[in-house]
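can u pls check wat happens w/ calcium ion
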Amino acid sequence: MINRFKLGLIVLAAAILAMPFGTAGASTGTTRYTVVLAGTATETGFDLAGTHDAALQLVAAAGGTVTMDLSKQIGVLAVESANALFLDAVRASLLVEDAAQEHVWKSIPTYEEAVGSGALTLLDPNTVPGGGPEPGTEPLEEFQWSMHLIRSPQANATVQAGSRLVEVGILDTGIDGYHLDFVDEDGSNVNCAKGRDFIPVGPGAGIADPCTDNNFHGTHVAGIVAARVNEHGVRGVAPNVELIPVKVCDVTGHCYSNSSAAAITYAGDAKFEVINMSYFVDDDQFLASTEFKCMSDPVQRAFRKANERAIQYARNQGVVPVAALGNSDSDLAHPPEPYENECDVVPAETEGVIGVMAIGPESEKATYSSYGFGMTDVASPGGNSRNRDGGEYPGPCGNQVLSTLPGNVWGCFQGTSMASPHAAGVAALIVSQFGKVGTDAGETDVRMRPQQVEDYLQSTTIDLIGAGQTETKGYDYCFGNGRIDALRAVLHETSYEAFTTETCPETQTQG
Ligand SMILES: [Ca+2]
Ligand SMILES: [Ca+2]
Ligand SMILES: [Ca+2]
């Protein structure tokens, strides 16, 4: 294990140095496209009405090479082509509903950018509480305000710490599957063999191994869901569930539309119980890419259809999709001019996805967190760096979230990216506690309808009320259904409970 770790660290460092920042193109001379085929979504997949072969012939005749065939599940082809007229050729066919150049966007910083800007701080390994940890707690658990806020240690100790049969797909930059904090006497709870790397060949691809995190983001997210209770580092919300690394974002922090659609589809094929998607668009990098994706724009429409069909497919296969709402402090129900409300943040606003906003240690809205009536489903700890009246939360991370980083390191980071995996972890605890174990094609699986998991998550929250804001009693535009609570969730405790916190920014209208 130690040798493996050292090797991994050296290779990782070399890989990062070799990667130029801000580049995320297709292999030389070719362009990547998303081709959305005409047909009908069904309960089990996508019905092309017998046109599959014709569609493949059409793409080939237009000079395209299919790199990922998702037609059976969602009627989408990922294509590379060097033909400048490829789009004109396929768009002219009735077999094609939409086709566009693939969306690529920068969703997260590189490791160097995050450390350089001070957003990511590494924990000094000597920073352990005076006198050592409390008996029965993890060495760094005292600094994990986020876990205490949602009462996951109590839920784990008294009711449910997660079933190894429950698989949580981490759609991100990969997971350092050899990190000490995922290992106990039963081995690592990161399933590298079931992991997938959907990053296209290119300068940001990094090491093509789902259990090597070429960035840092995926490992931090994964530790929040399921770092083990193993006398190392931290604990996750659901320490005993299985983590599956699925790469959709690369070394440079760019995420790929086709990779996202393929990863969500794969989660459905593999019947993961929960997926976490802590990626979203908040940076204009490509084709005037914006946070909001509009159906009126042909490029954004292809992106949306591919990913929305994938979410629907995955849900039909029993997957609970959980996503970060974004870090631009936007009211997603009232997008700024010139956007209409039909323009969505994808995947957070997609039908069937649990949208998660971020709160700080006092349950206050994190200054950066996006929100919006009908868009926010739950509030979850993501960290909040602004100085509060009461100062910082005690500990090396202050008001940020402490979790795992590649190379047996731990560190502090914040964002709705951190809020979402806390909610995904509670969803995984709910499935572990209330799901039915069954056997499907020789594989043991846990089943619980995604709608029911969502209902359990949302009906056991603690209502958050902005001080003096009567309209934030009950469901509201800012905190959604309220703060997730792991203990109430595993007990299915739905009695009304409320907590009054700071006021939220005014929204234009209610509803
Ligand atoms: Ca641990
Ligand atoms: Ca499963
Ligand atoms: Ca409320």
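The first helix runs from residue 2 to 18.
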